[in-house]
Amino acid sequence: MPRAVRLTDELLGHFGTKIGEWTLIPSSGGVFEVTLNGELIYSKKELGRFPNDGEVLELLKPHLD
Predict the structure, then answer these.
(1) C-alpha span between 65 and 63 (Å, rounded)
(2) What are the start-end ranges of the H helices in 1-65?
(3) In the structure, what pLDDT confidence band is assigned to residue 29 with cuts at 50, 70 and 90?
(4) What pLDDT band is residue 65 in, cutting at 50, 70 and 90?
(5) Residues 46-62: what's their mean pLDDT?
(6) Closest CA to 53 of 17, 7, 12, 14
(7) 3-class secondary-structure state, position 18
(8) Distance of CA 6 to CAs 42, 47, 51, Å?
(9) pLDDT band for position 3 (50/70/90)?
(10) Residue 48 gets which letter from DSSP?
(11) Are the C-beta atoms of 38 and 58 separated by less than 8 Å?
């Protein structure tokens, strides 16, 4: 959960009010996925690793900047 909280802080700090809603859904088994409007942006399950610092931010920039 600490990684998700850190990511939340990073994204809200960068995008501010461009994010109208943020939902954090706790799960088990190491699932860590980020979606935007139903589109999968990042999946730990698919890549086999947690995102690097700033990685999700960079993936979201084309959609929100």
Answers:
(1) 6
(2) 2-15, 44-47, 55-64
(3) confident
(4) confident
(5) 94
(6) 7
(7) helix
(8) 16, 20, 12
(9) confident
(10) T
(11) no
